[in-house]
Amino acid sequence: MSQKLFVPILLGTNRRDRSSEHAAKWVYSKMQEREDIEPAYFDVRDFKLPHDHYGMEIGGDFPEWRDAIIKADGLVIVTPEYNHGYPGVLKSVLDLLLKEYIHKAVAFVSVSAGPWGGTRVCEALLPVVRELGLTVTFTDLQFPSVRSKFDDDGTLLDSAYEKRVKGFLDELVWMSTSLRWGRENVPSKYHQT
Ligand SMILES: Cc1cc2nc3c(=O)[nH]c(=O)nc-3n(C[C@H](O)[C@H](O)[C@H](O)COP(=O)(O)O)c2cc1C
């Protein structure tokens, strides 16, 4: 591949003591190790969202995020499952942009304290990313029973994830590469060729 794929990763919860941060930082470190990905790390906690106004009208107030998504070939969303859904703050951050996401790939990392690994939040996110124009991979990376997966310092305790994260990122690279080719070669009213 001539040019690395630019793939931001977004940590989707601002909860104090969030275990999802361990998963996000570990996946980010795996992205950094790869020669085919240039990653960038974003945390919803760093977005100074106003309480009375959000959506695309204020997307320009978050230029680092907007520029990253314009440049992006793919996106990794790391989300815990809260009442079978996604954190409201994750939705608010995603809602800051719209056309910038179109015809780019997205992959989900989900996190739960219980045994299901956030499978339900992955399903709940599908209609959201579809409306954003993102194309989702079918290889989610799940962290069930997350408190037994990492120690307090965020060190991963389960070596099985090395193989899983490779498959997760390989599929995201395939999808991102295909969509980049499509954006560059197949005309669409949604992007410049
Ligand atoms: C408001 C709230 C709702 C939750 N709902 C669920 C749920 O529906 N399913 C689940 O498996 N875990 C649920 N959990 C527990 C999370 O899985 C747990 O907090 C886990 O550590 C991942 O989230 P974290 O990044 O906030 O730590 C919930 C936690 C909170 C704070």
Write the topology of this structure:
Elements: E1 5-11, H1 20-33, E2 37-43, H2 63-71, E3 74-80, H3 88-94, E4 104-111, H4 119-132, E5 134-136, E6 141-143, H5 160-185
Parallel strand pairs: 1-2, 1-3, 3-4, 4-5, 4-6
The protein binds flavin mononucleotide.
Name of the CATH homologous superfamily: Flavodoxin domain
Structural class computed from helices and strand pairing: alpha/beta
CATH topology: Rossmann fold
> How would you sum up the major sheet?
6 strands, parallel
Radius of gyration: 16 Å
Give the overall pLDDT as a whole number: 96
Q: H/E element string?
A: EHEHEHEHEEH
* Beta-strand percent range: 15-25%
Proportion of helical residues: 25-40%
Identify the CATH architecture: 3-Layer(aba) Sandwich
Q: How many structural units, i.e. domains?
A: 1
CATH class: Alpha Beta
**What would the principal axes of the Cα set say about the shape?**
globular
Helical segment tally?
5
End-to-end Cα distance? 19 Å
Q: How many beta-strand runs?
A: 6
Bound molecules: flavin mononucleotide
Unreliable sequence segments: none
